[in-house]
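Sequence in, structure out.
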Amino acid sequence: MALYMKGLRNGESDRGMAQFQEMMRQQLESSMHAELEKLLDTSTGAESEVSRKDFEGFKNLFHRFLQVKGPSVEWTKIQRPPEDSIQPYDKIAARGLPENVADSLNKLVVVKLNGGLGTSMGCKGPKSLISVRNENTFLDLTVQQIEHLNKTYNTDVPLVLMNSFNTDEDTKKILQKYAHHRVKIHTFNQSRYPRINKESLLPVSTNLSMTGQNAEGWYPPGHGDIYESFYNSGLLDQLIAKGKEYIFVSNIDNLGATVDLHILHHLVSQPNGKRCEFIMEVTDKTRADVKGGTLIQYDGKLRLLEIAQVPKAHVDEFKSVSKFKIFNTNNLWLSLAAMKRLQEQRAMDLEIIVNPKTLDGGQNVIQLETAVGAAIKCFDNALGINVPRSRFLPVKTTSDLCLVMSNLYSLEAGSLTMSPKREFPTTPHVKLGSSFTKVQEYLTRFESIPDMLELDHLTVSGDVTFGKNVSLKGTVIIIANHGDRIDIPAGSMLENKIVSGNLRIMDH
């Protein structure tokens, strides 16, 4: 198999080699199909039917994976997007809003990507159930935002959650608490695909169960799976039948991804011949975002370029803030009719992300994934909108959590807004060390979250705790050496200070 893959990736043009590769590819596909059938035979009923549908999608992905010959982009063909293909948000907002905002909202569905677990932050269960502000979880805030819209404009904007097999059961249990809220909530599940052995390129699972050794044999295949799984669930057709025209898709952990009425108005007000089918919100890149995907012009179409697609020789160029000035926030606005059309035409050709993993037993596997934004090249009249940074507020770590729990932000109707007392709009750079990684441990280290209104940069390393009403300004670095502990006293004000091992406080 390794010989086949090596020849394939090198793009051998020799006719004999090409015939050999084609034979090997057919053998691999045939073996994969046989193994998938064996897996389906280990179960009956509804589970088997769902898996059969999932496996059809996986077969298509695996087939395309075997066809790939080298990088998916030729660097010399990359062009900057035309001026009018990425509009500044201010230009969109300057057009104002129509009197009938409700008409536009009634055409909208909000979709949140809810497939991830909270394991990276030391939590069990879905990430969306982690408390982020005043005991409100990501899901609570989302429901509050949409309920506020529905009450304010007397509309019916539903919420759809794309769950994974990791999050579905726990999420459905919690949804009962929103039964009396003015938000209709629907769910559908991402596909469940088999992880494949890196050497044999065959599934590592021996049956369809999710228990024991088989638990590690499955994965949700990235958010690019939304097109297939949304369509397969039947929910796409149901929403179109109810008069819905657009979806706003975002990660549930991006607290800046609220419904923007100006972008929605821009979508619905386009003339029929120029209907925009896909909007990607992008924002200016900083040094913290150098790995984020960017928009390029390629073969006459807007296209998302991810770091995984970049040839090694050009990675530094890709990370450059001067050449690639914007990155994808993964806040996307899509036409439901276009999604349905492309799915039925099988015209979604998303670049494959090959994600290598090592299982607990040491086995090397790969999982084939796709990204939702990669579909931008498939839609007509696609557009980028360069939005304010405030629309990108992801909570990936406890350092991010510290920011959104602080007095930098105020909370109203489920939405966070930067405090007007903050004199400049940029968020401080906060880097908490490994002692703060898990949410429970992080919470025990703060009696209250410090005042950060005038903070530029905070680095904390080692065994450090904060008393109540601490104020941090400018650049503050606190480093407890191994074996030492630093307790920042209640009421302390640290401005441009370095605090080290034995609680010496020095000017920075």
